[in-house]
Amino acid sequence: MTEAVSPVSLAEARDASARGRLLELWRRYRRNRTSVVGLALLLVVVLAALLAGAIAPYDPYASFPSDALLPPSAKYWLGTDDIGRDIFSRIIFGSRVSLYVGLVSMTIAGFYGVVLGMVSGFYGRLADGIIMRLMDSLQAFPAILLAIFILAVLGPSLQNTVLAIGVIYIPAFARITRANVLSIKQKEYVEAARALGARDLRIMIRTILPNCSSPLIVQASLGFAYAVLVEAALSFLGLGVQPPEPSWGSMLGAGRGLISIAPWFATFPGIAIFLTVLALNFIGDGLREALDPHMSQIG
User: Fold this and answer.
1) Is 127 among the domain residues?
2) 52 in a domain, yes or no?
3) Total structural domains within the chain
4) Which of 105-114, 170-179, 201-210 is least confident?
5) I need a surface site. Which of 35, 102, 163, 247 has the fewest CB within 10 A?
6) Which residue did the predictor score with more confidence, 114 or 12?
7) What is the DSSP string of the chain?
């Protein structure tokens, strides 16, 4: 007689298989040296955000008017702004804003984009027509102008900035999901699941979604970089995060008029934006190659 396989051994086998897939993914990812550099840079930003209270030497909101526009020194590592606030401390705390906006806005865009794309691709016909025309309408506007319009209606704030960025990025996730669903729903294993009596919702979540997750992960990582950049642009224009909340974009905007006499005021927040966006783009490229072995072979 054959011995019954215990649930524990099956769980262990699944865990071992998952660990094996993750190790293989990491092995392919680290082949791209720039993606490893990007991951290291992002880890620095994440640690700075998590440990901001311990790392920042000054309160980011505290101003010392007598120390206004001081250049970088041993006391103020990156100098001070026009009302005497420590730029280094504000950049450290500003990383929290950028990561929060990127994470939450991509969560919003990913959730609604995947749901709309899944319904559109799976059911087709009327649902597909209505949803895709809605996505076309959103994409007809330049992204930054649509974000400005949303913030003009709702009012400038951190939460509204997150919502605006999330809305403008929904079509990207919806189109990627729809394209993959149209291809995957014709596969034999989907027909087998339907023949076994699986409901549509179960087929979409358990069968189709895992098989189109790779491009969505890449899209999320690249979209994260885009969200950080858009938040900085909106804050630069005064429509995003409002003072005195530390934001790289608003710091850059406040320092642009003083660039000739206090170049450090705008330079260091700009460098923070540049390095974070660059790191996220490197990570996105590395994930794309790691999740698509054919692409890495072509490269």
Assistant:
1) yes
2) no
3) 1
4) 201-210
5) 163
6) 114
7) -PPPPPHHHHHHHHHHHHHHHHHHHHHHHTTSHHHHHHHHHHHHHHHHHHTHHHH-SS-TT---GGGTTPPS-SSSTT-B-TTS-BHHHHHHHHHHHHHHHHHHHHHHHHHHHHHHHHHHHHH-HHHHHHHHHHHHHHHTS-HHHHHHHHHHHH-S-HHHHHHHHHHHHHHHHHHHHHHHHHHHTTSHHHHHHHHTT--HHHIIIIIIGGGGHHHHHHHHHHHHHHHHHHHHHHHHTTSSSPTTS--HHHHHHHHGGGTTT-HHHHHHHHHHHHHHHHHHHHHHHHHHHHH-HHHHHH-
